[in-house]
Amino acid sequence: MNAPATVKPNAKRHRKLATPPGMIPEVRRPNFELPADMPRYWWDNDPAKTLLLAALSSGFPPGERFFIDSVRYYQDRITDPELQQAIRGFIGQEAHHSREHKALNGFLEDRGINLGRLEREIQVFMDWMRNNLSPERQLAHTVAVEHFTALMAEEFLLKYDALDEMDPHMAPIWAWHAIEESEHKAVAFDVYKTVGGSEFVRATEMLFVSVVFPVFTTVHLVQLMKADGQLGNFRSWGKALNYMWGKPGVFRKLLPSYLKFYSPRFHPWNNDARDLVEKAKRKWLKGGA
Ligand SMILES: [Fe+2]
Ligand SMILES: [Fe+2]
Question: Assuming Cys at both sites, which of 9, 33, 50, 81 could form a disulfide with 41, CB separation 3.0 to 4.6 Å?
């Protein structure tokens, strides 16, 4: 009897990707200046697009504290020195994001955009999660949101013209944050895998995040538009909706990458965006650091 023909697996298709060796998130300490004469609607002179980013910014300080704590909980179980180093980079980067967005939120508050209320609402939600979810699920929450932020950073801020449409003093903050979100996108995931986090918890937490994140963001955007007297500005709503879901449809184009999260073979570095990040570093970070 002839031996069965050996079927060579498609190495590329079946390869489980991992974080590239030496990929340690770099902690930068940038200095941003926000001048008083910045236009009120600093992204494309558009209320809905600008206030959407403002709503996201309100969630960063409480959110990023939660992400740091969920990773820190497992830190002493990590024996790989490179992952330990990456965790320190992740914590440093998120701590600086939190600090800079707090300053940005204060700047916007001074201009009458009430982000304090939004931040308090998100803090209440984060406290609920801390008190009610297991440490494993809290880390899975971070893993899921990090996938969202990496997608938004790479596919939305760095790939399209969003940054070029922003006020030149505002764009570097979002560019810096997007670059670092891409750099540290796999840290929470690698910790989760190393400590044996379950696939069921990871997938179900992503489903939960996929409902909560858009609902919170939409409610907050409506609140901000209403407070700014822009609720009936259908031109702006239409323009923002078209940008996200129509043409270019940046959120619509994120859907395939979003769905990959549910695969057991998923790894954040399956999508290697280092070229995009390097280009953005040269353009937006002082000295290209
Ligand atoms: Fe961040
Ligand atoms: Fe992050």
Answer: 50
| Contacts for 113-118: CB closer than 8 Å, 24+ residues apart | 113/51, 113/54, 113/224, 113/227, 113/228, 114/224, 114/227, 115/54, 115/55, 115/57, 115/58, 117/223, 118/55, 118/58, 118/59, 118/220, 118/223, 118/224
What is the extent of the structural domain holding 170? 43-288
Instruction: Say which ligand is closest to the CA of 174.
Output: 1
* pTM reported for the whole predicted model: 0.91
pLDDT tens, residue order, the chain (289 aa): 344 444 344 444 444 589 988 899 999 998 899 999 999 999 999 999 999 999 999 999 999 999 999 999 999 999 999 999 999 999 999 999 999 999 999 999 999 999 999 999 999 999 999 999 999 999 999 999 999 999 989 877 777 778 999 999 999 999 999 999 999 999 999 999 999 999 999 999 999 999 999 999 999 999 999 999 999 999 999 999 998 888 888 888 889 999 999 999 999 999 888 999 999 999 988 765 5
Number of domains in the chain: 1
User: What is the 181 CA–ligand 2 centroid distance (Å)?
Assistant: 5
The rounded Å distance from CA 180 to ligand 1 centre is 7
Is 130 among the domain residues? Answer: yes
* CA 233 to centroid of ligand 1, rounded, Å: 31
Could you say which ligand is closest to the alpha carbon of residue 98? 1
Q: Is residue 31 part of a domain?
A: no
In a domain, 165, yes or no: yes
Query: Is 89 inside a domain boundary?
Result: yes
Q: Left, alpha or beta for 164 (phi > 0: left; psi -120 to 50: alpha)?
A: alpha
